Amino acid sequence: MCFAAIATAVGGMSASTLVPVIASSASTMVQMKGQAKRAQAQKKADDRQARQIEIDREMGKVQAMQNQNARVAEYISAEKSNLAVFSASGVDVDSASQKAFAEANLITVGEDLSAIALQADYQSRTRTVEAGLARERGSNALSAGYANMMGTAATGIYNMARIWPASTPTPISYPTGKVY
Questions:
Q1: Phi-psi sector, 23: left (phi>0), alpha (psi -120 to 50), beta
Q2: How far is Cα 70 from Cα 65, in angstroms, rounded to an integer?
Q3: Do 60 and 126 contact (CB within 8 A), yes or no?
Q4: What number of CA atoms fall less than 13 Å from residue 55's CA on the CB side?
Q5: How far apart are CA 137 and CA 131, in angstroms?
């Protein structure tokens, strides 16, 4: 009874016409909702990936500082060991050659620390770019999802228009008189 009332209210449409229209519109809405959810999920996944890359970047900086500290500790330990060996061997630790040796070791340590810092900076910048690209991918996925939704909506409207019965044309009567 209710279905017949709806069909009449929609313009005297028969049930055989109304059911496909309702099914088509419902299908279109479900597809659009699914596309939106997929796009939003992809954006969230890309944002999470970007955040993880940023965390990795910060951890890389900390690791670089730890590597620098370890290199300095290694230098200090080696320097103490060298001084002890030279002293035990009777070598003058205040001689010019020993000072030049210590200075050369210090320069090497400085170069090592600079190399560690340069590599850490390079990796940090690379990770910053990677995080930005991940966020951009997420934004693009969201935009593409919304564009797909609009395409689905247009297809749904087109399908419903094909199902929907055309309005009954008003008959036009033509005069039957002959004109010569």
A1: alpha
A2: 9
A3: no
A4: 6
A5: 10
State the greatest distance between any 2 C-alpha atoms of the chain, in Å, as a whole number. Answer: 140
**Tens of each residue's pLDDT in the chain, 180 residues:** 455 555 555 555 666 777 888 888 899 999 999 999 999 999 999 999 999 999 999 999 999 999 999 999 999 999 999 888 888 888 887 888 888 988 999 999 999 999 999 999 999 999 999 999 999 999 999 999 999 999 999 999 988 888 876 665 566 666 676 665
pTM above 0.70, yes or no: no
> Cβ distance 113 to 64 under 8 Å?
no
| Overall residue count recorded for the chain in this entry | 180
